[in-house]
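Task: fold both queries, return tokens.
Query 1:
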Amino acid sequence: MTNDPPATSSCCSTRTADPDAAGTGSETAPGAASDDMTTCPVMVGSAVSKKAAEAAGLYRDHEGERYYFCCAGCGPAFDADPARYAAGVA
């Protein structure tokens, strides 16, 4: 028995600490232009490189806007209730 806090679960629990290991580079984008960066509408506060997310297919279009995700788990969550997540970004 330990005093460690319980692990939190999220749609991004499969994300690795090393962006190169994940294969998308969307975790960190050193030198990325600020207009390339956005935040994930599902995991609010997670920085996302638009270019890397597009290359990895981590985006959805909803009502004429494109939304970019930090990991593969966020797309299906967004699909389940796009209006909810889109409203959080606006």
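Query 1 returned. Query 2:
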Amino acid sequence: MQKNLALVAHDHKKPDLIRWAQAHKEILAKHHLVATGTTGGLLADALALPVFRYKSGPLGGDQQIGALIAEGKLDALFFFWDPLNPAPHDPDVKALLRLCSVWNVPVACNESSADLIISSPRFEDPGYQRAIPEY
């Protein structure tokens, strides 16, 4: 079953995300990939896979991905954020991570958590349905 996956990375973490995505290309190729602007371009080039690109994070891309979460159209977020270099759009980043918690969307913030999510037997189990809260 194809999932909608978002891949996002702050500038200093883009090489880490690219390397991680290349290591998991076979799995990622089975799914619909979306990303914020620059990250999406880098991923499309590195993976030779289609990646739908939203705006750059500071220009609204984080909010566009947040809208996918709120609409129930995102299955997982892989967001390699940089905790040591605050971004000018930090409130948008916090809102995006908050939405993942609100809607119970799996989110990986670094390579280790991304490895655990993508290697989980439930990740590609068509019978697994995450619980979606009713508010």
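Both queries returned. Flag for query 2: Residues 4-119 form a domain with the Rossmann fold fold (CATH 3.40.50.1380).
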